[in-house]
């Protein structure tokens, strides 16, 4: 939990927020952080219904859960429209839902299996576009000078010979943010992304077949900033900055949170 001094800053007081992928990991940490900072409503959207309901209940009456698969644009549209209908506006969209490499292969360029990457691209690219599109539309229609934050990755700033489907998908997020920030800037809407290094989230732990400590140890030697491991709450701090008025004139930016990670 955050310290009382930090919570009293209430940087998001009165704001209506949607967080996709909010049932666990970075999304959950951010939902709790936003609520601590006075958000009027935090809507958690996720395909993990049981976990999402548990998180929303633990946060309290200001937090609700809506089941949503971001690969289905109609579900994203309904998520945004129901939020606006119920709460009158949308101030912040944290488009965070994403997946790691889904295929069984290493996905190098010579053996790239397009079908094996369809689901990954559907979530990480198509889903991200749908969230930015419909959040942006809602903000424009409501006259809200809002903030849209997307989750990319340090992978977006590098190249690779394997797992290139994941790398490409995260590079696409950065491109989307840059384009969307230009298109929505005239409406006073800011669009940015956060690019974390590896964090010991449940998804990362499952993928690496280890626990949170195991993930942290695996990447510790590749980070030149010492003094602790990167946690979900550290990424949530960066998202809060991009979502709040602290970053009033920041748009089209990729905020890397990586403890100096160099693979």
From TrEMBL:
Molecular function terms, GO-annotated: oxidoreductase activity, acting on the CH-OH group of donors, NAD or NADP as acceptor
The organism's place on the tree of life at top rank: Eukaryota
InterPro entries in UniProt: NAD(P)-bd_dom_sf, SDR_fam
Gene3D superfamilies attached to this UniProt entry: NAD(P)-binding Rossmann-like Domain
UniProt similarity note: Belongs to the short-chain dehydrogenases/reductases (SDR) family.
Protein name, entry field: Uncharacterized protein
Organism: Daucus carota subsp. sativus
